[in-house]
Specification:
single chain, 184 residues, alpha+beta, elongated
Length: 184
């Protein structure tokens, strides 16, 4: 009886191993690289938008054309001034894509590509010192205060108008602020 039990367990183990190998063989992955010529693109933002659009189309097309495909990795490269730099890398499974086709969750953005492709200078701009704004009426500054009276420091009366960052810039900032993010 003990030998029959061993044969049964061995047979089950062999069949389960074969089924596992068979399911792994049926799982198909694909890697694709695309290059976007950015010599005619005026800004880095529009280049990134083109890259995201190209990646979405490629993923949707590959999953639609190949029902056995279970995972895809897309790399979008940018070319400008005879320089080539990766813009983004997406690795997504079919189930993830079908559940939520927003690719930002699975996309790695290469933030240095803006500098590498020549859209931004490498030197950081040095802040220029400008004279402080004039004080609002009624506030005293060291120049117009009397001796013995308290001095007040002028404060800006209106907030500065800064443009809001684009969605791509917001994603980049979130990734850079993420302690687990690695930009190898």
């Amino acid at each position: 009886m003990n030998i029959d039990r061993r044969y049964l367990l061995t047979t089950i183990l062999i069949f389960s191993t074969l089924l596992t190998d068979l399911s792994l063989a049926l799982a198909e992955t694909k890697k694709a690289d695309f290059t976007i010529d950015s010599s005619t693109v005026s800004s880095y933002r529009s280049l990134m938008q083109q890259a995201e659009d190209r990646a979405k189309r490629a993923i949707a097309t590959e999953f639609a054309d190949n029902p056995e495909l279970t995972e895809i990795t897309i790399t979008i490269l940018g070319e400008r001034l005879n320089r080539i730099s990766p813009l983004l890398l997406i690795k997504v499974t079919r189930s993830q894509w079908e559940e939520d086709p927003e690719m930002e969750k699975w996309t790695r953005y290469f933030v240095t590509s803006e500098v590498l492709l020549g859209f931004r200078e490498t030197q950081e701009e040095t802040p220029t010192t400008s004279p402080p704004p004039p004080p609002p009426p009624g506030q005293r500054t060291p120049a117009n205060s009397s001796p013995g009276q308290p001095q007040t420091i002028p404060t800006p009366s209106s907030p500065t108008n800064t443009p809001s960052p684009s969605p791509a810039e917001q994603r980049e900032r979130r990734l850079e602020e993420d302690s687990g993010f690695r930009d190898d």
